[in-house]
Automatic annotation (TrEMBL):
Sequence segments annotated as region (Disordered): 108-144
Naturally occurring in which organism (per UniProt): Neoarthrinium moseri
Signal peptide positions on this chain: 1-15
Top-level taxon of the source organism: Eukaryota
Bias (Low complexity): 108-140
Keyword annotations from UniProtKB, A to Z: Signal
Protein name: Uncharacterized protein
Length: 465
């Protein structure tokens, strides 16, 4: 057998198109539907169950639209068999003695937009200027009696759902926590409704500018350490993360990095979190006789969970205006464990390999799809199984060739990775192959396209069991 390094070079040469390799298909990326939610909505203090794994798997099955085969011709197949012979369970990728080496994740490019825009993705943190005093926290959220709904009648009724622990108003959603903290909850979306939580210290004067400059908030963020297993990716920004990989929200009673990490650790597929302080109205000013300019503020400690890494480029949520009230964000810290997290191996697959980039073998590729959202290798495993099911009656020749380790109509190896655009998570990209490869072949990065840099994180490959 030829040396492995020579096999890799030969494999890439045989598997490369005449033109420069594209690595990913941008038509597929653009056609993939976006997730319905990319960050926490207004009005709520807690949101769980955002990612529906069952629905994601169903979409992977539906993605198969017909029989698909690899493009290699007979001569190329013979060369493939010589280079990577997997018959009877041996070969560089499927040997019984092949282990799962610890492969360090690649250093992120230092010249990507993610890095060059780090200092411009949020408003500059300025602590100079007038002295900002901080009042003790309050959770009373009292609404003045003079504040009443304008031209509005509550026609909602409460309903129950087996998946929801408490009744909730029809027309809203299961999982929000309102005020008071006992059911039936007051819908915080109602005009003049008190808003949840508010455990952070208040700022005086009560303005958005003073809130952003509050040195107490900045000290909380700057002094916070990194929980075990996590790497801090940004510190003390005036913006929160928004991305396709949003998984949920918790409002905490303090700026508690460890509690936020615990929430992530207890959530399947969560690999990062963003902790920040948000200026919210004490009551909902929309359709209320008291406008946003009349509403006092509360400070909320927000903990959001993500099924990807979180980079500075993803901190694009600077807040918004709620009927004249300025919602702003400060003290925003990001933490991730993408490089130290091994996904659970899907049923029917084996020998997970962590890759430095993406696999790109066009002549043995049997299909590729993009699923925007959380990084989930099970989506790719389901997609591979569904494609194999569609190809089951693909003919005697394919079945005969499978005895020699290569079947152009059967996926025996897939690569799943999180595709990023300018450092922001886009979703799980799946590539199916009719041949197995060593992790050393998975090093490709899509790179620049139409002014955006496309990168790879959390890349894993699997052999069929």
């Amino acid at each position: 057998m030829r040396p492995l390094i020579f096999l890799g070079a030969a494999g890439l040469a045989a598997g490369s198109p005449a033109a420069a390799p594209q690595v990913v298909n941008f038509d597929i990326i653009n056609a993939a539907p976006d997730p319905s939610i990319t960050g926490p909505p207004l009005f709520i203090g807690t949101q769980t169950g955002v990612y529906n794994a069952t629905a994601a798997v169903a979409s992977a099955t539906a993605a198969v639209i017909g029989v698909a085969t690899a493009a290699a011709n007979a001569a190329e197949r013979r060369d493939l068999e010589e280079r990577t012979f997997c018959f009877l369970g041996w070969g560089p990728a499927c040997s019984k003695n092949y282990g799962n080496p610890v492969i360090s994740a690649p250093a992120r490019p230092t010249s990507t937009p993610c890095t060059t825009t780090t200092t411009t993705t949020s408003r500059p943190v300025t602590t100079s200027g007038p002295v900002v005093t901080t009042a003790p926290p309050t959770t009373s959220n009292g609404v003045p009696s003079t504040c009443t709904p304008v031209s509005w009648t509550n026609t909602f009724v409460f309903t129950s759902d087996q998946a929801c622990p408490t009744p909730y108003e029809i027309g809203t959603f299961c999982g929000f926590v309102g005020t008071p903290s006992v059911p039936p909850y007051i819908n915080p979306e109602d005009p003049c409704a008190p808003q949840p939580d508010g455990f952070g210290p208040k700022t005086t004067p009560d303005t958005a500018d003073a809130f952003e400059k509050n040195e107490v908030y900045h000290r909380m963020a700057q002094s916070a350490g990194s929980p075990k297993g996590y790497t801090q990716t940004f510190k003390d920004l005036n913006a929160a993360v928004n991305a396709n990989s949003y998984m949920g929200l918790y409002t905490l009673q303090s700026y508690d990095v460890q509690t936020c990490a615990d929430k992530c650790d207890s959530t399947d597929l969560c690999t990062a979190f963003n902790l920040y302080i948000e200026r919210d109205p004490e009551w909902n000013p929309e359709r209320c006789s008291c406008t946003g300019e009349d509403v006092s503020s509360i400070a909320n400690y927000k903990c959001t969970l993500w099924g990807s890494g979180v980079q500075p480029g993803a901190a694009v949520n600077f807040g918004q205006t709620r009927d004249g009230f300025d919602v702003v964000i400060t003290g925003s810290n990001g933490y991730e464990k993408t490089n130290t997290t091994t996904p659970a191996t899907p049923s029917g697959w084996t020998k997970p390999q962590q890759c430095l980039g993406a696999h790109d073998h066009p002549k043995t590729c049997i299909g590729e799809k993009m699923f925007k959202g959380v990084f989930d290798v099970n989506v790719c495993a389901t997609y591979a199984a569904a494609q194999n099911s569609a190809n089951v009656n693909s003919g005697f020749f394919s079945k005969f060739m499978s005895a020699f380790g290569y079947n152009p109509s059967k996926c025996i190896f897939f690569n799943a990775f999180m595709l990023t655009e300018d450092g922001v998570a886009k979703g799980t990209y799946c590539k199916l192959f009719a041949q197995q490869y060593d992790a050393s072949f998975g090093t490709q990065v899509p790179g620049w396209n139409n002014g955006h840099f496309y990168g790879v994180e959390s890349s894993w490959s699997y052999c069929s069991a």
